[in-house]
Design a protein that fits this description.
A: mainly alpha; 22 helices; globular; B: alpha+beta; CBS-domain; 5 strands; 32% helix
Amino acid sequence: MQHTTISEIIFGWDPVWFAGILFLLTYLMIVTEKINRAIVALLSAGLMILGGVLSQEAAMRGVDFNTLGLLTGMMVIVAVTRRTGVFQFLAVWSAKKVNADPWGILVMLSLITAVLSALLDNVTTVLLVVPVTLLIAEELNIKPYPFLFAEIFASNIGGAATLIGDPPNIMIGSAANLSFTDFLFNLAPIVLIILLVMFIPFYFLWGRSLTATEYNRQKIMNYNECQSITDIVLLKKSLFVLTLVLTGFTVAHHLHLQPASIAMLGAALLLLLDNLNRRSDNQSRSVHASFAEVEWVTIFFFLGLFIIVHGVESTGLLKTSAEYILKLTDGDMTITSMTILWGSAIASALVDNIPFVAATIPLIKSMAPTFGGTEALMPLWWSLALGACLGGNGSLIGTCANIIVAGFAERSGNPISFVRFMLGAFPLMLASIAISSVYIYLRYL
Amino acid sequence: MTASQVMDPHPSVLHKDELIHKGLELIMDHRYRNIPVVDDNGCFEGIFGVNCLLRLVLPKALFVERGLKTVPFIKHTLRDLKIRLKEVEDMPVTYCMNQDIEVVTPDTPLVETLLILYRTRNSIPVVDPKNGNLVGMISYWDVGSKILEQNI
């Protein structure tokens, strides 16, 4: 993002103060959740322009359309694919593979959640997995809390493994020009270790007490997972396009293509394949239904957020903050990395990780001269990615996925207590960050 | 013409403390689609109907908003459904009655009443706006017979 010249500020306000206070107020409004976050972000973005901090052209330059395109494209692909029933198939198949044993189901559903979170995104994944989980838990006559807790962790941990797994990674990848394979080679190994380690406390917390009667287990075993697949032709088309898209992500960097181009092209191809034999009026309905599944609140939230952060960045406030942090860490890469890792983890647990990452990205970028160029910033990017993604596990409001799971739990009559979740989740999140610290130190510092 | 002129002023009702199995008996014996539920003062509380029966025998997880849209993989038998119903049949009808119901007042104009009836596709309660008391029910049959008996 390039710096812009500050135009006239209305009422003669100091742009630094105006942008800084507006940013803090926006953050506060997002955290308190009194008003929908997309409204807050768009309103603040508008004020950033109205206040003269940014011109409209400068505001548009601040929007990371690669992130928006990637998110939207993947959401459309998943919207079409979910109609095939393949995600229900996976969940039921995995439950039967462990003979409907509750602990086995917890492990299997967590693994599926982690893998899907890495390949899709964690918000989409929990939307697909949690409804089946609630059904299975009800059939087993078990409170769904342990399953949902494990799935929240699995979604955030799995999402950390790839470029497309979690919105913070999408933003970091786009801003730092990191490829799908960069994320895979640098983060997937530690993600796998953390995921497997997490099953140890899960087992001691719930593993031994999860039991179900033979009758209830038989109900699950009687499920016919093959009948979940409602449209085998569409499934083949979806898997074909998903394979192409994932392959595209791995080679995109070498072809100088952005992930958004791959995701959007994949979405368009799948929509074409899905609508080839439909009449034009049916096509219109079908395409409309697919687009309606896109989480537009999230997309507009990002749009507003990019403008707000760009506004703050253009005033030089973030550069000043970066200089202050570097002064505190004495320009030492190890201390700076650890500060970013632990700071972003704790911040992401307490507030939504997306605005935090949006503000931290330009901050890290402005540290490049101190550390000898953009290449030297890699440990900081991986620290931010791990901290923001894993830190989201620390509380129920840490990530969008957590909030969605909590919403499902509440609507099903099994509300998750904020405090109860945090008491269990925060220490486990800290443990995952401790493991990440060792990894970052040994591999990059 | 208003809702009060096409309503049944003496519908069968359930008291809010009556049990689900009593409500189901009433529904099955009389083939009712809906029965209004009232409190001690005759105040309208909600509707208990055939939909409640279906809701009681199916897994609750299927009714979660934004949840599962289709479940062709579930292979429950009638016995499984009866077991699920047995677990809740001694609970009061308020456990599963529907409170998200559109109601009309005795003074609601006829065409407005019919439009609501058409949209809801269910019998609609007529409620006194002053005290919330149920004063009647309007079904397709009430309206149909009233229209057909007109001499022109």
